[in-house]
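Worked example 2:
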Amino acid sequence: MTERTYSVGVVGAGMVGERLVSILEERAFPARELRIMATSARRQEIAGRERDVVRACPEAFDGLDVALFAGTEGEKGASQLLGWQAVERGVFVVDNGNDYRMDERVPLVVPEVNAEAMRAHQGFVANPNCSTIQMVMALAPLHRAATLKRVVVSTYQSVSGTGRAGVQALLGQRLAAHEGARADAGPYAHPIFNNVIPEIGGLGEEFPGYYSEEVKMVRETRKILGCPDLPVTATCARVPVENGHSEAINAEFERRLSVEEARRLLGEFEGVVVMDRPEESGYPLAADVSGKDPVYVGRIRQDPSCPNALDLWCVSDNLRKGAALNAVQIAEKAIEMELI
């Protein structure tokens, strides 16, 4: 029996789009065609070689089986402009952007956590926010065992989360500081070099005083875990790290979880690697995770202020599991579940 193959589109040629292409090829996704789309047609080096890029328009989706949207492409999110038109053409859409994550029609999926949610898809599945993905990967096995009661998280997010503009800002400011010159702040409210900025996204009215990245973590965590009333609070900061997000998580449960049980549950969960040897300074570091697929968890300890709470340290490559890898895994899981 011949394995079925698929015509695959990638929408976006930035950092996430490039990771999508490379991960599709690394994982030998059964693609008979790979069509890369962006705001304009061109030749561009993507994932190690020159490739054709076609202009993203409704007709560019004709003949495709799957389309992976990298995120924002143009003045509006590409999925907002083209996503549902692609679905109307028979394409299964996986969107890394924020436009439809909380849409009731659209499952919000981390395959290891809630793949079954895809059965209700209407041709469109959303990829969660990078910081949410790694947190729910760390929380899901513990939640299944002891039921979450409250989550408090502080994030330390790398500049690659802002795309190439963020990386260029950090590198430019670092060079300027070395030369005694002044550099532009780039996409940030303040220079990021030698700094920590507690602002990611914009302010809104739903959660006064919270920036949108923090609101995403609250709302998306509830949707993915199927806990609409779960108390979640987040403080998200941008740090001068090129790639790899880090998070300090305090999770309270309905019953007490020992550190040993938590280590076992996390160690048995697909996609999570436990690095928890504090006596040897053994814990996950952002400097070590680039190019790696797992979510790494360490510093697992009992919260002395709350008998049913644990503290965790969680690190992951935000461009891989936090974005492109999770999107590809959604498509792979949809094929496995015979949804495409």
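The radius of gyration is 20 Å. The longest strand covers residues 148-157.
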